[in-house]
Design a protein that fits this description.
By secondary structure, the chain is α/β, with parallel strands linked by helices. Helix content is 34%, strand content 31%. It contains eleven helices and 14 strands. Helix 3 (91-102) crosses helix 4 and helix 5 (132-144) runs parallel beside helix 6 (162-175). The radius of gyration is 25 Å and the shape is elongated. It starts with a strand and ends in an 8-residue tail after the last helix.
């Protein structure tokens, strides 16, 4: 269990993190989000023991990370955005080196990590010759070498191509089945796919902490149903849809020979069957109908407007 209690961090007169508190239970996969300069990287470095808080305390399983450094750091595996690897070493030799440094049985642990991290095919290659995706896998294997209970990942898919992103996401999801995972990323779709909880930091302060689905619902008071209709008059469409129960507003626009209607409705109330019946009643042609709901990106923008440009 991770406990962050009223933690702040100052750099000179600048307060990068300002009185943040949260706890993360064993087995959670948590997304730590924030715009550039929000303080999320500083927060992660304090959790991992790389930075000492100016105020407050960080605890791992009840132990202060700075008064019990050895015990707490054994529980944490950390992969920074650019994994610090020796590019002139062969993958197998590099992992043996890491195992020796950490006092791990290399003969037992390395084959296990090669399997878990998908490295079997590249164990004989120089790290410098690997794709970025495979280098990320080596970085994950390094972070997992000591069998940590907590895995902290800073921008784990940064710079990867779509295929590599998919592979690394699958790997993280698999690892998260048996560990607590904290992910810092700018890719909000990644958080939606991987994380069951989101903590958002803006200007050094925690502005949200909620299960992912619950966070979306909290900031989603209405849905937007978008329709493309043919053989119809724009004014007639607007009048008919606006009169429907649970419709908050309706706007229409002409697109060549078709009408595009945007209908805002009460959240969690489906009016699509009623709108479809209206289209049929008036003998209009229905080309498209879809629902747009608040995404995590919409919520993120709402909560972090005004974030600064530089990461701390």
């Amino acid at each position: 269990m991770i406990e962050v209690e009223h933690v702040s961090r100052r750099f000179g007169t600048f307060r990068a993190v300002d009185d943040i508190s949260f706890s993360i239970q064993t087995g959670e996969i948590v997304g730590l989000l924030g715009p550039n300069g929000a303080g999320k990287t500083t927060t992660m470095r304090m959790i991992t023991g790389y930075l000492e808080p100016s105020e407050g305390v960080v605890k791992i399983d009840g132990m202060n990370v700075f008064t019990h450094e050895v015990e707490t750091k054994r529980k944490i595996g950390y992969m920074p955005e650019s994994a610090p690897l020796y590019s002139d070493m062969i993958v197998a030799d590099y992992l043996k080196y890491v195992a020796n440094v950490e006092g791990v049985d290399a003969g037992k642990k390395i084959p296990e990590l090669a399997d878990v991290c998908g490295l079997k095919e590249v164990m004989h290659k120089n790290i410098g010759d690997l794709s970025r995706g495979n280098r990320q896998r080596v970085g994950l294997a390094h972070a997992l070498m000591g069998d940590p209970e907590i895995l902290v990942l800073d921008e784990p898919t940064s710079g990867l191509d779509p295929n590599q992103v998919s592979e690394v996401r699958s790997l993280i999801k698999k690892i998260g089945e048996t560990r607590t995972v904290i992910i810092s990323t700018h890719i909000l779709s990644e958080v939606e796919m991987l994380c069951n909880r989101v903590i958002i930091i803006s200007n050094g302060k925690k502005v949200a902490d909620s299960p992912t689905e619950e966070l979306r619902s909290q900031y989603n008071s209405s849905d937007e149903v978008q329709l493309v209709i043919g053989n119809a008059d724009a004014q007639a469409v607007q009048s008919a849809f606006s009169a429907e129960s649970h419709v908050l507003s309706c706007t229409v626009s002409q697109e060549e020979e078709k009408i595009r209607a945007c209908v805002h409705t009460d959240h969690d109330v489906s009016v699509r069957p009623a709108l479809a019946r209206l289209v049929a009643l008036h003998d209009w042609d229905l080309y498209e109908m879809n629902v747009h709901r608040n995404s995590l990106e919409d919520v993120f923008r709402t909560l972090t407007t005004g974030g600064s440009e530089n990461e701390n």
